[in-house]
Give the backbone structure.
Amino acid sequence: MPRTLSTSDMVTPGSLGPPHPEPTDGEQAGQPLLDGAPSSASLDTLIEQLVPKADYYPEAQVRKFGPKLLQLLAEWTETFPRDFQEESTISHLKDVVGRIAPCDEAYRKRMHQLLQALHQKLAALGQGPESLLGTDKPISYRNKPPASIHRELLSICSDPYTLAQQLTHIELERLQHIGPEEFVQAFVNKDPLASTKPCFSDKTNNLEAYVKWFNRLCYLVATEICMPSKKKQRAQVIEFFIDVARECFNIGNFNSLMAIISGMNMSPVSRLKKTWAKVKTAKFFILEHQMDPTGNFCNYRTALRGAAHRSLTAHSSQEKIVIPFFSLLIKDIYFLNEGCANRLPNGHINFEKFLELAKQVGEFITWKQVECPFEQDPSITHYLHTAPIFSEDGLYLASYESESPENQTEKERWKSLRSSILGKT
């Protein structure tokens, strides 16, 4: 029988090691970390490093300073376009453009192109997948759709590899809309009553939509398994999803893989002992082992590093695909942010922390920019987005009606669910 994953299994990653010894006042800030960059510095020192000086970028020589500023603005607007959603920020940007553009015709053209590209990106942000948030609401068992309306997934797609490809399409599409600044917004606006959880807001719509997609896929898997009335059909659906999960692993789609495993590990599914007895579970146990939370998901992290290395040396678009288990990625970044101080005891900025955060978010940016090499099948992706899913109570009731309650606790719960959902006593 599959082992149910509990939230207590979600071990947090270890924090960074001890920082380098801090210099005393008057000494050069910190130890070199990367290419001579200090590991810490005072805020004044940091500003001094960023502000042009007379000996290398004097304000009087805009032709030397201009290209660097253009490069900074281009990378900023390309990577963090949401920073410019506020009208005040756009005004500041236009002010900078107005100061630089008159100095050179080439600057004027590049600044105009920069602003055009930014406006296009901001327009595209309003067309993200957050509009699908409303389709994820589970239905109760009482609202079970008739067979003429609800087509089972196997009637839409019976090939595991094809379904894994379509899941990868959806994952990459949703990932592409998530801006790196959404992680910052989620952590800055964390819920003070739930200190270990980020707080979603109107600035984190795409991140929230992606988390909800994971939950939807979990419940869709459980719904598809619990829906058939015959034991043989349920076993067939379980084996199909095992094969889909294996193909997701081979592709590098770890988020869909974990969603499928989590769906099959939900209690209403895992309790179906007679159904599982007809399932060839060897492949499932191998996949469970790969995603086992033991040792802070060490098996998964090893597989992720392998996929990341494959992506770097890829000879085809398919080999470039790396879709991380997103909830764990968020936890890693969150606890790195919370577990390491922004400033060291001497008041210096903790460069080492921010470089590690930049490394993790930078990997995410690289992975999300991969174009999906598989041809999209609209009928399959539409079903995955819109097929009705049972609520947790609905799943339990379907499970109990498929295989009768085995103990007094289950019998009492079944009776309560029948009364509340179906209106039966």
